Amino acid sequence: MPSLEWERSHYSARPELKARLLANENPWGPSPKARLAIMETAKEGNRYQHEAAMNLRSMIAAFEGVSEDHILLAPGSSDVLEKMAIMHFMNGGNLVAADPAYMSLIKTAVAMKADWKKVRLTDSWAHDLDGMKKAVDRNTKMVYICNPNNPTGTLTPAEDIKKFCREVATNDTTVFVDEAYLEFLPDPKAQTMVPLIKEGKNVVVARTFSKVHGMAGLRIGYGVMLPEMLEKVDAIWRGNMSLCKTSLMGAMASLEDTEFQQMSIKGTAAARKQTVTGLKKLGFSPVPSHTSFMVFPIAMAGKPFLDAMFSKGVGVRAFDIFGKDYCRVSMGKPEEMDIFLTALEEVLV
After folding, report:
1. Which sequence spans correspond to the domains of the chain?
2. How far apart are CA 71 and CA 58, in angstroms?
3. Which CATH number applies to 4-29+259-348: 3.90.79.10, 3.30.300.10, 3.90.1150.10, 3.40.50.10700?
4. pLDDT band at residue 16, thresholds of 50, 70 and 90?
5. Rounded to an integer, what distance in angstroms lies between the CA atom of residue 24 and that of residue 183?
6. 321-344: b or e for each residue (b if 16 or more CB lie within 10 Å)?
7. How many CB atoms lie within 10 A of CB 36?
8. pTM value?
9. What is the pLDDT of residue 143?
10. Which of 18, 58, 251, 284 lies deepest, with the highest CB count within 10 Å?
11. Cα–Cα distances in Å, from 231 out to 88, 197, 224, 227, 239?
12. Residue 256 C-alpha from the chain's centroid
């Protein structure tokens, strides 16, 4: 995976980018209704946000089909991941998670002195749930599953994860399922692990407004968990104090703007099709993606590849996966994907 130094140097170049395709951002958002709500709320910036937080929490609870004491609001889902890591690994223990995986929770857990027990993805890029189950022992405080997975964009069948959670989630071991990209799936309600929480299983689900809703820079997300888990969080953090009133109001407006959400989902699907067609035409073999990004192997080391692409005004990411170099490209508008494909051809073909 790229070093932190790469990320800092390339993010600093972002004003010069013609196609910013490096952070899985939504190129169409926030929705017009969310923007209006944010603008109208700015004049209330002198007032605390507690009432707005209560209202959004109520809306999300109704959307997820749970009571409000299951919902943790947060400035982005990464905050939920990091809070769970801190809370679970204050006294050590181990974390079972895939390799490769989204690193936010893992990095925080390791910083808390957790032992990361890596379980390599299967040859079909799914989570190796049997391997993960075998890796769980009496010191396992948490199992982390990102589905669809980042950075691979691949999907593990929901029924397999549900079976895994019913067998593994106990009072001593939390199963954390990161569903940041769930809305890009055809039937998100059939894929979510929230029903397991309703069953009383020790499962935590994280969701975000950063992707389909296009609010990455506005920082709003949430976790769904058992009420007793939420009580533990509230005993440590004053969650509402990290929230911004404008973002809360924007999120409520965005939840109601289903037309924008569908446009965002369809636009992303079209970009995936355009990109897959273009990559295959150039001789690349992209990994089938269910998200707003995709990865494909490249015959060039990550750092010089990024340097070359950024020099052409195209921001992407590079990863070392199983000893091979891969490019991860986020989905943008049609013209951005054309710029990316042209630059890629000039750099690698």
Report:
1. 4-29+259-348, 32-256
2. 9
3. 3.90.1150.10
4. confident
5. 14
6. beeebbbbbbbbeeebbebbbebb
7. 14
8. 0.95
9. 98
10. 251
11. 14, 15, 12, 6, 11
12. 21
Structural tokens at position 172: 């001593």
Using 50, 70 and 90 to split pLDDT, how confident is the model at 11?
A: low
**One-character DSSP codes across 96-157:** EEEES---HHHHHHHHTT-EEEEEEPPTTSS--HHHHHHH--TTEEEEEEESS-TTT-----
What's the length of the chain? 349
Which CATH number is associated with domain 32-256? 3.40.640.10
pLDDT tens for each residue of 233-266: 999 998 889 999 999 999 999 999 999 999 999 9
Give residue-wise pLDDT tens across range 75-106: 999 999 999 999 999 999 999 999 999 999 99
Chain centre distance of CA 122: 20
Torsional sign, CA 262, 266, 272, 274: negative
Strand partners, 174: 142
Question: Are the beta carbons of 249 and 239 closer than 8 angstroms?
Answer: no
The candidate with the shortest Cα–Cα distance to 229, out of 258, 254, 206, is: 206
> What band does 13 get if pLDDT is binned at 50, 70 and 90?
very low
**Amino acid, res. 41:** T
